[in-house]
Amino acid sequence: MVDSVNSETTQRPGRTSREIATTILKLVAPVLIIGFLLWRMPASAWQQLSERAINFPLLAAALGVAMTALIVSFVRWWVLVRCQGIPLRLLESLRLSSICFLLSFVSAGSVGGDLFKAVFLARRSPGKRVAAVASVFVDRGSGMYGLLLLVSFGLLIRNANDPFVFNGISVENIKWIVGGMLATGTAILLVLVLGGKFVDRVIRKLSGIAVIGPAIAKIGPPLRAFHDHPWAFALSLLMSVCVQGLFVLSMYLIATSMYASPPTLAEHFVIVPIGMLASALPITPAGIGVLEVTIETLYHLVPARATDASGTLVALVFELVKLVIAGFGMIFYWTAGKDVQESLEYVEEHPDEFDTESLGEVHQ
């Protein structure tokens, strides 16, 4: 009896120390992330910002528009999760998505934070691992589809006498490339979402193929789950277009708040989606740097008339706006429960477990 009491007494300080260390880490980690991202920005950029006269009401409007876009994207993921039959409250999805948005700034590309969402759902709903990963993949694909729609829309409404060439590719070739990608994506969506029993039979037959069969058997059924929720899936696509359109408007408001003759809103519908698409590539944390280079290049190529705006500076301010929004994710990170912290630790300890080769293994 005495030994058991002594054992509990000796264990308690260890648990307390660990809890204190975890609490300190929760408080410090997000601050370090934001601080590092601000520190890595060049001094010349800060000097250029300090020298410009900025219309702060317009800049505040850009912040509000960007925040609205992110909230809509968070709700979109929640809709897709519910289509998979995974229980998740809306407020909880907003909390998780905010944390993931913060985490995306320390992983390559703009997709890194999504891994945490898949891990959290898989740990909470044993047996739904593939469905959890599918919800994240489809959410990202839905966002990309919205980007393609906006690029197509921007190229159609753009009115310029001199066609531009981007990295050796003419505007006409860009139209064909975007059109081909959009047509392919549309065909895949129609087959997976609207296809009937014939598609199910095809999936079952392809599942028997030696090389690709196992992957199709694992991924096919969760994707086909959207067949039972066509209107919800259509809503997610509409929300994707809304999200990307709001980001375009946000960057246009930033440019207008800083310059007298920025590219027009219609031209931003060409510039921004291409820049966002480039920044989604897994090159730098949250696509920072890639977006600036792409926007700067397109600011010189797309506008029909000369502009005094710096694409680099506008994109930099847009990144700062996203950093301000990521600051709200710090609050959710600090107040996260035990299940969220355990999922974060699991992602750090098993970074490669949720790859395409292990989708079929159910984590208990």
Question: Could you give a short description of this structure?
Answer:
This protein is mostly helical. The protein is 73% helix and 1% strand. Strand 1 and strand 2 form a beta hairpin.
Low-confidence stretches: 1-15, 356-364
Biggest sheet strand order reads: 1-2
Task: Count the E strands.
Answer: 2
* Quaternary structure annotation: single chain
SSE ordering? HHHHHHEEHHHHHHHH
Strand content: under 5%
Helix content: over 70%
* SS field, number of helical segments: 14
Q: Taking all residues together, what is the mean pLDDT?
A: 73
Count of discrete structural domains:
1
Large-scale geometry: globular
Helix vs. strand class: mainly alpha
Rg for CA atoms: 23 Å
Described by strand count, sense and barrel closure, the largest sheet is: 2 strands, antiparallel
Instruction: For the record, give the distance between the C-alpha atoms at the N and C termini, rounded to a whole number.
Output: 35 Å
Protein name: Inner membrane protein YbhN
GO cellular component, one term: plasma membrane
Main location: membrane
Subcellular location: Cell membrane
Architecture overview:
Keywords: Cell membrane, Membrane, Transmembrane, Transmembrane helix. By secondary structure, the chain is mostly helical. The chain has one domain. It contains 14 helices and 2 strands. The protein has helices at residues 2-39, 43-51, 56-83, 90-103, 114-124, 129-157, 171-194, 197-206, 213-224, 230-258, 265-279, 290-301, 311-334, 338-349, and strands spanning 165-166, 169-170. It has a two-stranded antiparallel sheet. A hairpin with a 2-residue loop joins β1 (165-166) and β2. α8 (197-206) packs antiparallel against α9 (213-224) and α10 (230-258) crosses α13. The model is unreliable at 1-15 and 356-364 (pLDDT under 50).
